[in-house]
# Entry
Amino acid sequence: MLSKRSVIVALGLAALAIPFGGAHAQTALDDVLKAKTVRIGVPTDYPPYGFVGPDLKPMGLDIDVAGLIGTRLGVKVELVPVVSANRIPYLQTRKVDLIVSTLGRNEERAKIIDFSHAYAPFYQGVFALKTTEIKTFADLAGKTVAVARGAMEDEMLAQVAPPTTIVKRFEDQAATTAAFASGQTQVIATSVSNIGVLSQKNPGLGVEYKLLLRDSPCFVGIAKGEDALRGKVNAIILAAKADGTLEKLSQKWLKRGAGDLPL
# Structure
């Protein structure tokens, strides 16, 4: 059995440990403001969210959002290129302060990092040339639609397309977009990122968003426990949503509105 003195000492040490741990967990915002620089992980191979422009500099929706965060924090932005495999490890090992890289939120990721409010949509949809009249799914009747076999878009299209829709399935996204670009189909069902690649390679094609299949918003990734930094980022996102900045960025890069982004 522990003596009364031992219990008192143990409780005292525990009490001392609490503020130390709390202070340690809240260093990111202080570090950013002290360095006057925020390091943000961004994509550079995923148009229209992040890609290398003609001037060999990163550009895209995520790049603009990263710049917005830096401006409203009053610090410089250091863009750090990331890919899907390393973006969360970079955040966990403090190689970046934030991730702005088409990051979706799910239960597994929420166990190891924190998320801001959503800042942009990421979606699968139906796309076609501007001259192709499509207002509702009923307008797909009789039209040829390219889709990757077994992809999420294939499954969702099967649920909403009229029976007379002529669905042409290809083995992967590259073959699907190539078929549409060459005129083999009138319509394509794919993700906005694939359309970004297509539009980048074929700027004169005149492709536009027609119908939504599924929305999957993007969130800023923040190291676990960095509540002060998360609060700042959330305030920036809410202000940008209120003043129309997020809507303008969505229209600029995705050719559709931001929609009702979740908190």
About this structure: The two ends are 50 Å apart (CA to CA).
